[in-house]
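[retry 2/3] DUF342 domain-containing protein: previous attempt timed out, resubmitting with same input.
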Amino acid sequence: MSSPVNFRVSERDVYISIDAGTAPSEVKAEQLQKAWQASELSAAKLLDPQMLTQTATKYAQHHSKDSNSSIPFQVIIAEIFDADLNLLVSDDDMKVTASAIVGYGGKALTQEAIIAKLKEKKITSGIQRKAIDALVEHTSEAPPGAELSVTVAKGKHPINGSNAKFKPLADDARKRVLRPQLREDGTADMRDLGAEVTVDSNQPLLQKIPPSKGRPGFTVFGQELEAQDGEDRDFKPGEGTRISETDANMIVADRTGMPSFNDNGVQVDDVMQLNNVDVSTGHVKFKGSVIVSGNISEGMKVTCSGDITVGGYVDSAELYADGNITVRKGCIGRLLNSGETAEYDEDADDWIPDVSTKLVAGGSVWCAYAQYSYLDAKNGVHTDKQLTHCHVITQGPLAIGGEGRNARGKLIGGTIETCDHIYCGQLGAPAGTKTRIYWSLPPVDPQSLEHLKNMRGLLAKTLARVKTVQQGLDKCATLEDGPKKLEYQKKLKGELRKLKARITTTRISIDSVLEAFENHPVLRTMVSKEVFPGILYLFKEKSLRIKEHRNGTMFLLQDKQLRVDSLL
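[retry 2/3] DUF342 domain-containing protein: success.
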C-alpha cells in the first residue's frame, strides 16, 4: 500500500504532499517524522525544527475545513543547500585558510570547484592538494552543517643565503685552558689540561665555507619574494700559515707550532720549551709561545707574543703574554713596601695591593691558586682553588673553582676590577677580611663606535649641504622673475626638503646608538656557599657593603644599580 505522504523538490524548496482525503489520523507528527527520515530528501534543512509537527496541525485544520477536496495538500517544509566554501587570506599573503560547511542535501565540494574558487581569487601558488582532498571528503561524509577549516595554500618565505663561514680544523691552543680533562669518575681535573696543542707544517688549519645563494620565496598570489645572497669574506692567513696550493678555501700551517684562531684568520706561533726560568736562563723574551715545564723563580720575567704555559709555580715573577697564561700549580707573591705608610692599610676602602707576582695576558689566565698576585687578563681569570689578597683586572669572567652554581673556590681579600660575572663558592673570610669588587660597564662595541662616527660624519655633511642649498635659494631670490627662476627654486626647495628629512633620520639613528651605549647587560656575582662580612661593591659613586654572614647569595649590577638577592 502506497503512502499518502510524499516529498518533492522544486529548485531548492522541498515540499510535503499529502493525498486528498487522507484522514488526519494517518498523518500525525510521528508518522510524518518517520516518512521524512525514510525520504531521500531528509538531508535538507527543515525551515523549523518543529516543521513536521506544524504540518500535521495545519493538515488537520485543512481537512476539517475542506474534507471533500480532491487537490493534494502541499506546503514547503525544507530547503536544500550545497556545501559552502569560504577563503581567508592572511595579511601577509602567505597563507589561505579555507572553511567548508557541509551542505543540507545539496552538492558536496569537488576538487575542480575548490581550485576554480582559488583561481577566482587569483590564488595560484603553494596550493595544498591534500588539504583540498580533505575538504572534499569532509563535505561528502560529514553530517550537514559540520565545518572544517584547513590551510589550502601556503606561500614560501625567502631564505637568505648564509655568509661565508670559517671552520677550524685543529684545536685552538688559546682555548685549551678552558677544557680541563675528565677523571675516571667523570669529574673535571682543573690541573690536567691535556697535551699541548701543536700542529705540523702543511697541516690543514682553517677551511672556508663559501657563501650560499639565497632562495627566493613567493606569496599565495604568485608574487616572488626576493632573498639576499650570503656575504663573502676573505681569508686572513697569519704568521706561520699560508693558503693551500691545492685548495683556495684552505689555510695550512707553514711551520710547526701552536695554532690560535681569530674568526677568519689563524696563526701558528713558534714554541720555546724550557725546564725552568731562573738566573741560569735570564729573562725570557720570545716571539711565539713559551712552555716552562718547571717553575719561574723570583725576580724573573717572561714576555712573549703567544701563550705562556707553566707546569710548576710562579714565585714573585712577572709574566706578559699576548695570548693565554696557564700556571698548573700556583702563583705566589708578597706585598711590596707593606707597612711603611698608611697607604698600605688592607682594611681601607680604596686599598689596592702592590704585589711581587704579576701576570698580564691578552687572553685568559688560569692557575690552581694565587696569593698576593696581580692578574690582568682581557678574556677572564680562572682559578681552581682560591684567590687571596690579589689585584685582578679583567673584561671577562672571574671563575674560582668552577662557574655558576658549581663554583666551589674561595675569593678572599684584595681588589677585583671587572665588567663581567664572578663565580665562587666563598666570598670573604670569617675574620671579616676586606674584599673590594669594582664593577664597571662592559666596553662599547667597536662596530657601534664606528657606526656612530659614520652617522655623525653624515650629519655634518648634510648640514653643510643644507647651508649651500639655502645660499642658492637666497641667491635665486635676487634673479629676475621667469621660468628658469621658478624651475631653479623648485629644484632647490625639493632638495632642501630631502636634506631636512635625512637630518631628522640621522639624528634619530645617533640618539638610538647613544641610548644603546647607556644600556648594559646584568652583571652577577654568584656565591654558591657563604658570604662573610667585609665585602664592598663599588660602581661609580654607588657602593654596597655586606656586614653580616650570608649563605648562597647573588650580587647584581642591574640598570646601573647594585642589588643583593638570596641564591635559591
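[retry 2/3] DUF342 domain-containing protein: The first helix runs from residue 29 to 38.
[retry 2/3] clearing retry counter.
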